[in-house]
Amino acid sequence: MPKEKKTQVSRLKSFILEFGDNVFSADGRVLFCKICEIKVEYERRSSVIQHIQTVKHVKMIKRREMFNTRTQQMITQTNTTKKSEGVSLADSIEIIDNVSVAMKRLTGTTGKNICRKMENVLKKNVSLAMLNKIKNILNGELIDMKDLPEDLDINDLTYFKYAPITSVNVERSFSAYKTLLTNNRRSFKVENIKKHLIIQCNASKYIIRFIILFFGSFFI
Known about the structure:
By secondary structure, the chain is mostly helical. The protein is built from 9 helices and 3 strands, in the order αβββαααααααα. It has helices spanning 8-19, 45-52, 55-83, 89-104, 108-124, 126-138, 168-178, 190-201, 203-215; strands at residues 24-26, 31-33, 38-40.
């Protein structure tokens, strides 16, 4: 029996399944290469194979893999730095600036959309702009207190030297506070609440010290 001729839609789907939806996309009539951002002839399978073997396509694939590797390294390094304690406000803002510069180097439609999205988010973040100005004042680059809250004076700005630029630690503290506000508590003195909060905020430090002190003697 003669082979049934594939329909246009099924042919397009077969190429996407074979080479991956990260390489090709289709709208029912056109086969589009996401890597090269061009339309591809698909009437013959050999035409599709010929396209993915072109110098331009192979070069773009390598460039994308290199970009993904660098981006992953940048994100890992950024997350590691942000998680470390004692990071100054200047260093935290420098991380954002470095990421912004790296995002502007992105190519292709997806890369440009990511860059545009990040720029819009940072532009709308009024608090980040305020922290950036405080950082410049602390570094001696500015002396103007304009656009800062009226209840802040020059002496208060010194407390922002190690200010976090994210609310992650604050959000984590909510979970710690829930242990204080459970329904089964009947009494809790104010001085004990203070001690309890200090333990919660520094739990990781105390646990590490306890492990070293308690188990260290077994290895001496």
